[in-house]
Design a protein that fits this description.
The protein is an alpha+beta fold and about 240 residues long. The protein contains four helices and ten strands, in the order H-H-H-E-E-E-E-E-E-E-E-E-E-H. The structure holds zinc ion (ZN). The site of zinc ion (ZN) has 4 residues, from loops.
Length: about 240
């Protein structure tokens, strides 16, 4: 009954002409929860991304050169990236279309000083801002994460960057400050660092931002790429 009700709500949103970003957000929720087949999901990604790209430029979105990229954790630098020289990136077994069942860790964790795990910086006593790495358009989010959720990403954001044909993923946040359809630029505050997510909320997990980059150069199969070198480069000049 719940599935039927949500399907009807979905149809109602579609009938009112939901933006392509809002449609992508709904699609990703279905992928995440494994409510859609891989083939159907790929077809929908292929259909929506060009529309999202067109919408981005039509509403004044501007490409960002890689030189303009920003380190995503304000007040922190490259030495806060977990592992040694990017060793935290473990793509084996990961498939975006596996949703909540996906394996591996095809991203990087950036740790903040939060020994008492209250999601506040031990030095400033304040939340730590998450900055958009590049420019793009927000295409999915989860503002209503609950502590008993099995989902690993917690309060996450997906930002599609048309100039890279790629999607940035930011996970485990305390609060989200943007929503699907919002156009963002490098360095814009999009969230605050938190401990949301099945594993990120556990006491064994130091507070961090999880960042992943998915390339979609074939048009319908978001595939992880290691952006450690870019993070390290922009993180060396960050402060
Ligand atoms: Zn991670």
């Amino acid at each position: 009954m719940l599935r039927l009700a949500s399907a009807i709500v979905g149809l109602a949103i579609f009938a009112q002409g939901a933006s392509p970003a809002a449609q992508f957000d709904a699609l990703y929720a279905d992928i995440r929860d494994q409510h859609i087949s891989r083939d159907a999901a790929r077809a929908k990604v292929r259909e929506l991304l060009p529309q999202i790209k067109q919408d981005f430029y039509a509403r004044g979105g501007k490409d960002a050169a890689k030189d303009a990229w920003r380190f995503p954790v304000a007040g922190y630098a490259a030495n806060s990236i977990g592992g040694t020289n990017g060793s935290g990136y473990l793509p084996n077994g990961y498939d975006w279309f596996d949703g909540y069942k996906s394996k591996g860790h095809p991203g990087h964790d950036i740790f903040i000083r939060d020994r008492n795990q209250d999601e506040l910086d031990d030095g400033t006593g304040k939340p730590v801002n998450v900055l958009s790495i590049s420019s793009g358009i927000v295409v999915a989010y989860s503002p209503d994460w609950k502590a008993d959720s099995i989902l690993r990403g917690g309060r996450y954001l997906y930002v599609y960057d048309p100039s890279q044909n790629g999607i940035f993923y930011y996970a485990h946040q305390r609060s989200l400050l943007v929503k699907p359809g919002d156009i963002v630029s490098p360095g814009q505050v999009i969230a605050t660092v938190g401990r949301s997510g099945r594993n990120a909320a556990a006491p064994r997990s130091p507070t961090h931002l999880h960042v992943m980059f998915l390339m979609v150069d074939d048009g319908d199969y978001p595939t992880p790429r290691d952006i450690y070198q870019d993070l390290a480069r922009v993180g060396r000049r960050a402060k």
